[in-house]
Amino acid sequence: MRPLASRLNVMSGEGALSVFARAKELERQGRSIIHLEAGEPGCHPAEPVLAALEQAVRAGKDRYCTVAGVPALREELARYLGRTRNLQVGAKDIVIAPGCKIALFLTMMAIIEPGDEVLYPDPGFPGYPSITAGFEGKPVAYTLAERRQFQPDPDEIANKISPRTKAIITCSPNNPTGTVYTDAVQRRIAELAVEHDLYVLSDEIYARIIYSDGYISMLSYPEMADRTVIIDGFSKSFAMTGWRLGYAVAPAPIVEQLDLLAINTYTCVAEFTQYAAIEALRDTTGATPKMVAEFAGRREQFIRELNQVPGFRCPAPEGAFYAWVNITETGISAEEVCRIMLEEAGVAGIPGAAFGPTGGEFVRFSFASSNSTLHEAVERIKKASAAWEGAPATR
After folding, report:
1. Among 319, 321, 360, 334, which Cα is nearest to 151's?
2. Other Cβ atoms within 10 Å of 159 Cβ, number
3. Which DSSP state fits 68?
4. Residue 336's Cα: distance from chain center in Å?
5. For residue 393, how many other CB atoms are within 10 A of its CB?
6. Model confidence over 313-325: pLDDT tens digits?
7. Percent of the chain scored above 70 by pLDDT?
8. What is the pLDDT of residues 252-266, one digit of tens each?
9. Are strands 138-143 and 117-122 parallel, antiparallel or unpaired?
10. 178, 322 in Cβ contact below 8 A?
């Protein structure tokens, strides 16, 4: 057989999915597993969303539709972004995609040329460097260090900008750290983007899940309208993970290219899911604020209890639903901690290195489960911690 495309050799998978696969294998063996590895809300879409889905199907909304997305959904998204993020965008600025990953993938395909450098956060979503490399670009990491409360360092970003730099990826709230970038940090990144004529890909999938007042989008800053692409979707804020429904907000030249790429890949997104998504955005029952309030309570309990586990140290995240736990004081590696937790305690977490080298001394847990499930998970971890108690710290 002739060889496959070499570009696949530089791409990587996701640590969360490999942990999930092993956890499911143990479940098939009859083991009780608490899943804290997946980034998925523990609830389901609100009842009006489900009703709108059924109504759309019964009304025959199951045909090919507009490539960029149903106009009614794009118009509703424009109103939604104005209401929740104070952004002035129009339906023409929005392209609907079958999931955020596809929106991100095709946006990067439209932007990256071979040899282009793309700055991305480490730790961060593993797709950023993988997709960049797959398009023959060069991923260049900027650090989210614990000593800076996991905020980006604009001076580091400035020092890493070169004549080959094409784009900066930001993600606030960040996965996996839960950090919400400060106004000062984002403003300086925006200034650097303008100064060096760079695109900014702003991953805002967790924008509605924050535990402080207000959210500032990268698109809000001066002179960013022509260079910013927002990547967002319905998975996290509306508990619609399996629906595979995302979108990009982009300047006109990129929208045009995304339309072309959609024609050559997925054609269009399922029409009936788009009509149901309109109901999700309107959120007549207040499902999203209620979900975020639940997450806030779980965060308080889970972080408090995690900090009682020998060798664990975890600050409270400012957004998303992840606990980013420093395990240095356990004296063993994050991979070994996760192996012990899964194999001996039946608790699935993800070694931090899955999100980049800077995460090597951390473990990520999702606290999207119920309070009782989270409490049981910590109790199991405490019992398993005998395997590392007394071990010398790794630094």
Report:
1. 319
2. 10
3. T
4. 25
5. 10
6. 999 999 999 999 9
7. 98
8. 999 999 999 999 999
9. parallel
10. yes
